Amino acid sequence: MNMHIALCLLTRKAFLILVSLAFFTFSASAQRMMKTINDGWDFRKVGETRWQPINLPHTFNLDAYSQRNYYQGKGEYRKKLSLPEIAPTKRYYLKIDAASKAADVKVNGQVAGSHAGGYSAFILDVTGLIRENNEIEITVDNARRDITPLWADFTFWGGIYRDVWLITTPEQHFNMANYGSTGVFVSTPVANEREGVVQVKAEVTNDADSRIRLKMQNRIYDAQGKLLQTNAQPFSLKAGETATVEYKSDVIDNPQLWTPEMPTLYRVVTAIVNAKTGEVLDEISNKIGFRWFSFDADKGFSLNGKPYKLRGVNRHQDQAPVGVAIDDEVNRRDIRQIKEIGCNFIRISHYPQDDALLDACDELGLLAWEEIPIIDIVPDTPGYDDHCEMNLVEMIRQHYNHPCIMAWGYMNEILLIAPTPDKPEWPAVRDRTVKLAQRLEKRLKEEDPSRVSVMAFHGSDLYNTIGLALGDVAGWNLYQGWYFGELPHFEQWLEDQHARYPHRPIIVSEWGAGSDKRIHSVKGRPFDFSMEYQQEYIEHYLPYIENNDYIAGCAYWGYVDFNVAARQESMPRVNNKGLFYNDRTPKDIAYYFKAMWRKDVPVLHIASRDWALRTGKAEEEHPIKIYTNLDEVELILNGVSCGKQCTSNYNTIFRVKLPEGSSSLVARGYRNGVLVEDVMIMTLALFPDLHQGDEFAVNVGSNCYFISDVSHLTWLPDRPYTAGEWGYVNGKGRSTTSEIYNTVDGPVYQTWMEDITEYKIDAPAGTYEVELLMADVSRPARQQANLLGKGDERISTASKRFDITICSEVVEQNFSPADNNRYLNACRRRYIVNNNDGCIDIRFTPLQGKPVLSGLKVRRL
Prior knowledge:
- This protein is an alpha+beta fold.
- It is 16% helix and 38% strand.
- The protein has ten helices and 55 strands.
- The strands form twelve sheets. It has an eight-stranded parallel barrel. A seven-stranded mixed β-sheet has the order 30-43-44-42-55-49-52. The chain has a six-stranded antiparallel β-sheet with strand order 3-2-4-9-6-7, with no helix packed on it.
- The radius of gyration is 32 Å and the shape is globular.
């Protein structure tokens, strides 16, 4: 080849490459760009002078972990933001993914906008305000009373606790003023095993000062990334115009269906293209799933035409020590863990959560019910209803494209703290509650008729009688056998509802019992917070839900123990009904769910991790529970078989005699001929022997062992006195849910013997240290409405005064545990006494009110 010709060809090729590169660079730079601006912020509470450096996500009331009256008010955020240049043909936006519960935003001292609602995103156009060097100021208020929630059984975390984004777009872009959404809405109006159709509705905005011809391009890819269809349709926009452009795909043959077991996702890429130059101006990618579902009053829930039991949990988003200021990987981790125990469903309670959580539900396979936080009562507050409707629309539009979502909710236990019908204020509360529900139900169906509407009721028939049962599905939050009633009342309630409203689908939206790792009982009872009663409660509820088709499914309350600053109970500031501790360590009970719900893997778990330190007499039998989906299990103690047992209700209990000290436990079984094993170490401390100088402690008035997580001392369950042993001579057991202050062993003080006059411990003669624990609870603390009156069994309102005599020696005169106004405070006193009669006899002489004793500890000196 002639050198000149070759050089010309090379030059021409290089020129074309340069032109292509230049076009690519121009095109890419013209498209949307998103980046987080989470670092380099300063924060202070309103009224403070000193700023502190922080990064987002951030919450400003971590004091909720340590006190009931946590900070509710305003917090100020500021950030310096430098930009290399401000292009006149670009638009600039701030997107705040969540700021609780109201935010006012300024850019360079000028108002950019505001938002009411603490759980959904909002986008502000800052094009006319931004420059090369900027200061962003955001004031957040978590105390606003015209924004829901106003009352709830969770902490109202304040702050900018999700991401903040800077978004730039060209002048033609998808609508950025659509309730915080992308402006692109994708659905599958046809979805079955034979064919699927994709529909896209996109709002497009032209912010230029002249008319422009555009195309909307849609490309559909299958789960393997293969391009299935592409389409481009022309349209024009006038200057300043926003218009909706719609597209419906050709039929996709035999689509792979989305299920929790096989969450197959297709991808739809929607782009705005300059019709003249072919330049891509803006582009949004969405993952979609082909699935269909239905609820039936008799048959329950069906997915893709087949009966399908919904098996799930409720999930709050906080994790100590950061509150709700969690990273995306926390959301993804939680969904993986929820899937691991066999869930196919999640109730996202009680508010919209991070996009990362919804993405994980799509990708890993969890059906979802999402809701806005209208809880306990509807107030008569100007602007409240409008904000509720706006928050509903925001939730639906922001999360519309997620195939995991099958239900939208908008009220939870809305009559919980409403006045009773005999009160004069009841008609007004009833009417405005029903009016708001009707308004939201109507708007929900206008926004998205493809999903069902749902409301969660607490156990009251008022929801039926006043016309609040508006939704497609009735969710019932039921706690019989915990807050009230007995365990069988659970199924009786559901059967009655189904009989009286035979055409209404039902889902059990909440059910649960609390558990405290320090509290254990071989005879658990409601509201004792023992790990064992929680197991008994769950083992009663879950089989009924599973075995009755008319119940669509359930969401256990809850996935993890979570912060409630106003709660007291055995663990102040914690709702401890979780299947997992707040750090996401599983409780033993989590394996019961896994054993029942996971048919694809063998499950075998010695359910004693939560009670690995036992106390008892030599040769005394101890229950060892095993959760499993195997038919038969063998237990081996220190290398010796305890025999084999068949399982029932996915568990079996061995009763074994543990030797003193540490023992190895091995559970063993077979599945399809393959050996499955679980191993743990258990420790037995022998029952305290006062002859040997052991420390002897009693959890007076309680049926439970209490193991201090600080001293590791075990406080034994109380019992009546028998000769040669120990116990109370008289009195009546009482309990409270009120927090007891100035102690780390609160549950010991939350139960007591009331009207006690004598307690006896038979022990060898000698000198002893006797310690008495008491608290005056005659002035109860204000309780959460969610307790439904449970837990406070006090009958005396007068302060207590009494004398105390130990071994015939008066140790206290005219004594009260509330001296110096120390109500609800731990009172713990030690006395050195001489036992000359072989019995430590403690006597209480009442002077005013009824004597009380919460705990006692004896040690021979």
